[in-house]
Amino acid sequence: MLTNDYSYADCLTNAEKSAWTVDDCFGGRDFDYSRRFLPDRIAGVDGISCPDETEKRTLNQIRGNSYRHIFAFVEEYIIPMVMDHARDDVYGDETRLNYLLSFAQQEVKHQRMLERAMDQISAGLGTTCGVIPGREQVAEVVLGKSRLTALLLTSMIEWFTQLHYKEHVQDDRDLDTLFRDILKFHWIDEAQHAKADSLLIEEVAGQLTPEQREQAIDELLELGTAVDGLLANQVEMDIDALEAITNRRFTDDERDEIRTHQRRSYRWTFLVSGLDHPMFKQIVGELTADGSAKIAGAAEALAA
Prior knowledge:
This protein is mostly helical. The chain has a single domain (8-16, 50-303), classed as Orthogonal Bundle (Ribonucleotide Reductase, subunit A), CATH 1.10.620. It has 13 helices and no strands. α6 (94-125) runs antiparallel to α9 (177-205), α8 (147-169) packs across α10 (210-246) and α11 (252-275) packs antiparallel against α13 (291-303).
């Protein structure tokens, strides 16, 4: 079914070796608000002409806050999903069970880490930035799709998490150190989660017909359309937060310019970078006959 060189035993061993706590990550530190939080490939701020350099840095930090929130938002469904898969074989493969329980615990830890970061950022920026609501309701929608759809969405998220950190964050010494470390610690766990996703996908997909696997791709792209709408709402809240923090009222044309750049940036960060990830494309190509063309078309449309 899938070309897998992974095993639950390896995932469990690596998780135990690389275990960390939220306090390990923060180490009593706060963010340095004289520095950017995100590389511009993710934040998409540098190409906007209307803010000055200080305002661009502030928008970058607002984007850092929303980046953390959106991860917590979209990962809400992963904990019950993983627990559901753990129950499938609760009296069977103990290594599989132990790793999946560890997987779920790590996602709870991520939620705590991200919420702590957002609290500190709100205090540092002097305002609570607006963020898209309803993550429990969105989790219900995802979990209402097929099991393969939810796993494919999880796989896509965890592959692009690694791409963001390894290719754009890890070596950027101009970023705030604490924010970079948060992404590093998140990446440590997600590197194992992506492998476990492939194992779970193989288990689930092996029980499905080719038509059911194709339907899962269609459902995934439907979820992507819904996520795109949520990202558009977040852009508006980011602009409102920038106005509140800088005490500046942007004109309609200026808001349009910021909106255009930020929509493109959000789409690349949370959709295109996942749909285009080589490992995700390999998974889809091995599972389906038409899925690769579908996700390539969706990525191209979103990047336009």
